[in-house]
Amino acid sequence: PTSTAVLDVAGLHAGYGKVEALHGATLRVDAGQIVTVIGPNGAGKSTLLNALAGALPGGGNQHGQVCFLGEDLHGVAIEARVARGMCLVPEKRELFATMSVEDNLLLGSYRRYRAGEKNHADQMPVVFDLFPRLRERRRQEAGTLSGGERQMLALGRALMAKPQLLMLDEPSLGLAPLIVKEIFHIIVRLKQTGVAILLVEQNARAALQVADHAYVLETGEIVLQGPAAELAHDPKVVETYLGLA
Ligand code: ATP
C-alpha cells in the first residue's frame, strides 16, 4: 500500500458460519476521500463494513487482507481497531435511548477517556458546530429524537472518538428526502474536516454525488468500480441504480 491509503483491502472473504456473504472484495480508501459502496439489498454491504470493523460474529470466517494506516489488521480485535482510529456507525444507530444527547456523545469519547486523554471530550464543540440541532437538544433523551436527529447523534458520537476512518452504514435509511439531503451535506462537511469516509448506501444517486470513488457490490462481489463521477454515467449503473430519470 502507498502512504496515502487509509484503508487497503485485498481479496476479503467473510460470512456467517459456513455461509460466505462476501467473496473476495478488493478496495481502498485514500486519505481525505469519500469512497462509497453501492448495491442492492442483501449484496453484502453491511457484511463488508462489519468485517472491516472486526464486528462479525465469531470473526466471520474472514480471509484476505485488511490494511489500515499501513498495518495489517489480521487478528486485531474490534476494540483495538477502534483505538487505531476506525469507527463504524451501524445501520441501527445503536444509541442509548434513555440517556441524554450529551451523554450519548460522551460515550463516543469513552475509549479516549479510559486511555487517560485529559481532553477526551474536545470534539464536543466541533460536533455541536456541525449539528446545531444537537446543541439545542443536548439535555433531551436520545429516544425522543426524530430519525434525522438520531442519525446526527450517531455521526456526532462517532466523531467524539476522533477517528481516521468513518464507516457509515446506510446513513440515509428510513429518512425523509429533505433530511437525507441534510445528512449528505453533513457528510461532505465531515470530509472537509479531514476524516476519510467509507460510505455504504442503497441511495446510489446521493452517494455518487458526494463520493470521490465508488464500488458496486452485487451478491458479495465487486462488479464495477471507478471515479464516482464516471460511474454516475455508466449505462449499467444508470439503468440499475439510478433509474431512467
Ligand atoms: P442490506 O442493505 O439489506 O442490509 P447488505 O448489502 O448490507 O443489505 P448484508 O446485510 O451484508 O447485505 O447481507 C449479505 C448476505 O448475508 C445476505 O444474504 C444476508 O442474508 C446474509 N446475512 C446477513 N446477516 C446475517 C446473519 N447474521 N446470519 C446469516 N446470514 C446473514
TrEMBL record:
Residues 7-244 form the ABC transporter domain. The keyword Metal-binding does not apply. One of its GO terms (molecular function) is ATP binding. Keywords: Amino-acid transport, ATP-binding, Cell membrane, Membrane, Nucleotide-binding, Transport. PANTHER family: ABC TRANSPORTER ATP-BINDING PROTEIN, HIGH-AFFINITY BRANCHED-CHAIN AMINO ACID TRANSPORT ATP-BINDING PROTEIN LIVF. Belongs to the ABC transporter superfamily. This is ABC transporter ATP-binding protein. It comes from Actimicrobium antarcticum. The lineage of its organism: Bacteria, Pseudomonadati, Pseudomonadota, Betaproteobacteria, Burkholderiales.
